[in-house]
Amino acid sequence: MRTAARDEGSAEAFERLYKMAAPLLLGVAARIVGRIELAEEVLHDSFTKIWQVAGTFDPLATRPVAWMVAIARNRAIDLRTSRDVSSVEAQDEGSIFDWSEGADETEDRRRNAQWLRDCLARLEAVERQALVLSYQHGLSHSELAQQLAKPLGTVKTWVRRGLANLRQCVETRMAAAR
Amino acid sequence: MKLATHAALDALCGEYLLGALRGPARRRFDRALRDEPLVASRLRHWEGLAPRYSTAIEIQPSNRVWQRLASSLELTRHRDPWYRRERFWIAVSAAMAVVLVIAFTLQVLQQRDVIDEVEIALLSGKDNAPQVSAHRSRDGRTLMLRSTRPLTAGAAKSYELWVIPAEGGDPVSLAVLASLDARLAIPVPHAGRLKPGATLAVSVEPAGGSPTGKPTGPVILAGKIG
């Protein structure tokens, strides 16, 4: 994928990469900015950056798709206005994330996904909802408070406690596996 | 304050990944990602846990996104990319390397007094490992590594450069590297550790660097700062 783009450095490889990853990146961006026109802006900017850095940057990323998704997420978060936030809809995490075990996944990756899933399931429902919604739409604490119609302080607590509990749970499993 | 030593580093990584950090807090984190290797490796550690998006969320972009990209990036210029072909670049870099070696040698021979960097350590390893010399710029901000032969970390691996303090104690990560020819900004909190008696070492780590903040893989090169 990105390796192909880097090795050949050619427009053909870049086009293949675009065809493969653009729908996913657009979906991710649309969940954050809420409007398709703005999401396409994000897509354009993200691939511009990918083209510019593919030859020289980040030989360390192990998962090119995750790397590209992170670029799109960051760009979407930067471009979004508070008006866009009000148009996002809450959705069940089951339909947003793919928990199946992909054949191309490494053992580590499969184990990580399993841990995350188990640990998310152990969180309080409000904490889980806060984390998933925030991640899905890239929401700040105050935007999340607005979405959930709850006081900012309460929402902040949910996110922080949710993250802390999630981390502790995952770290316990990591330590046990070592 | 540096984020690498921030007590809430993990929590900040979590909020950054969620997208909850905004404005100055987000920019500060982005800066730290660029300047502090430990922050970047910690973030990658947590990033590895982020769930994969389902293909159900995919949306086909309209054709005009690609058309706009193709024209703004002038992709048609790269359609017949003789100058971007791999073999061409290998030949060019080989030629440049020769030129650079010659230029560097000439510079050393002729202008020894105006070189703005000084060799501080020579790292070596077992068997046929290359030797890597470490040079520090006069202003103490930049560290350059030069390998006797090019060595690039394999797939899913990274090199990580550590300093073991002269007074002992845990190795401190200076940088995660893809290749042993590198130029890096010395992280400010660690600049003082690069002094005589300290040891520089390179270990092989999972891509993105040690997940634990301590070396986990074999140390392939080491050398004392003299």
Outline the secondary-structure elements.
The complex is a heterodimer of chains A (178) and B (226).
Chain A: H1 2-8, H2 11-33, H3 36-53, H4 64-79, H5 82-85, H6 93-96, H7 107-122, H8 125-137, H9 141-148, H10 152-177
Helix pairs in contact in A: 1-2, 2-3, 2-4, 3-4, 7-10, 8-10, 9-10
Chain B: H1 9-18, H2 23-35, H3 37-47, H4 63-72, H5 86-110, E1 117-123, E2 132-137, E3 142-147, E4 157-164, E5 172-177, E6 182-185, E7 199-206, E8 219-224
Structural key phrases:
heterodimer, A: 178 residues, mainly alpha, Rna Polymerase Sigma Factor, Chain: A, Arc Repressor Mutant, subunit A, 2 domains, flat, disordered N terminus, B: 226 residues, alpha+beta, Immunoglobulin-like, 3 domains, 4-stranded antiparallel β-sheet, 5 helices, globular
Structural class of chain A: mainly alpha
Roughly how much helix do the residues of chain A carry, as a percent range? over 70%
Radius of gyration of chain B: 21 Å
Order of helices and strands of chain A: HHHHHHHHHH
Oligomer: heterodimer
Largest interface pair: A-B, 65 and 56 residues
Outline of chain A: flat
Low-pLDDT ranges of chain B: 109-114
| Strand runs of chain B, count | 8
Describe the main β-sheet of chain A briefly: none
What is the CATH architecture descriptor of the largest domain in chain B? Sandwich
Main sheet properties of chain B: 4 strands, antiparallel
The count of β-strands of chain A is: 0
Order of helices and strands of chain B: HHHHHEEEEEEEE
Helix/strand/pairing category of chain B: alpha+beta
Bin the helical content of chain B.
25-40%
**How many helices of chain A?**
10
Percent range for β-strand residues of chain B: 15-25%
